[in-house]
Write a structure and sequence with these properties.
The complex is a heterodimer of chains A (114) and B (107). By secondary structure, chain A is mainly β. Chain A has no helices and 10 strands. Chain A is globular and about 40 Å long. In chain B, the strands form 2 sheets. In chain B, strands 2, 4, 5, 6, 9, 10 and 11 form a 7-stranded mixed sheet that branches. In chain B, strands 1-3-8-7 form a 4-stranded antiparallel sheet, with no helix packed on it. Chain B contains no helices and 11 strands. With 107 residues, chain B is mostly beta strands. Classes of the chains: A mainly beta (114), B mainly beta (107). At the A-B interface, strand 5 of A face strand 4, strand 5 and strand 10 of B.
């Protein structure tokens, strides 16, 4: 069974940093491209970032470009999102999802507030 | 950036009725459009990809149609578990974008 489990969310002050992790199991993680998607409270889904299986191609939403960095460790079956210079508008539940968005994690809440 | 506009924002229907949800793209996305269902406190669930291909395990009452800029998700006969928010997503161009959602609520 495919499982994606996000962690690393929490309360952070504006300008601060957080690193989200997504632990994958039940499939051959190293052969899948992966995504991060977020959803602010009561708002629509927003795609954040994408990384190919071998990390050769990476894309970001304009809203996070230059502040967020996606990465992965295929040996550890893990996906990451390093978030720097956080803003109030980054407050959201962050989901990791497989390529094609067939499988999603349960999400981790990031709150940016002083 | 491709903007997706979903209508209506809210659809009030009774179980057993047919639901028709619309998604319009600001430019052609060919058939690279997906539909998701989301219930409160849960992650989205993929229903339809490539405009009309049901995802694994999705009941046949869910169907998708359209191409170019106009797409439709149809639920042929609403079951109690179908009352939720539905989002469309385009995968034609970066950045990937989602529509604003249609809430299907019990009348």
């Amino acid at each position: 069974e495919v499982q994606l489990v996000e962690s690393g969310g929490g309360l952070v002050q504006p300008g601060g940093s957080l690193r989200l992790s997504c632990a994958a199991s039940g499939f051959t993680f190293g052969t899948y491209n992966m995504n991060w998607v977020r959803q602010a409270p009561g708002k629509r889904l927003e795609w954040v970032s994408y990384i190919t299986s071998g990390s050769s191609n990476i894309y970001y939403a304009d809203s996070v470009k230059g502040r967020f960095t996606i990465s992965r460790d295929n040996a550890a079956n893990s996906l990451y999102l390093q978030m720097n210079s956080l803003r109030a508008e980054d407050t959201a539940v962050y989901y990791c999802a497989t390529d094609g968005f067939h499988h999603w994690g349960q999400g981790t809440l990031v709150t940016v507030s002083s | 950036e491709i903007v997706l506009t979903q209508s209506p924002a809210t659809l009030s229907l009774s179980p057993g009725e047919r639901a028709t949800l619309s998604c319009r793209a600001s430019q052609s996305v060919s058939s690279y459009l997906a539909w998701y269902q989301q219930k409160p406190g849960q992650a989205p669930r993929l229903l339809i990809s490539d405009a009309s291909i049901r995802a694994t395990g999705i009941p046949a009452r869910f169907s998708g149609s359209g191409s170019g800029t106009d797409f439709t998700l149809t639920i042929s006969s609403l079951e109690p578990e179908d009352f939720a928010v539905y989002y469309c997503q385009q995968r034609s161009n970066w950045p990937l974008t989602f529509g604003g959602g249609t809430k299907v609520e019990i009348k």
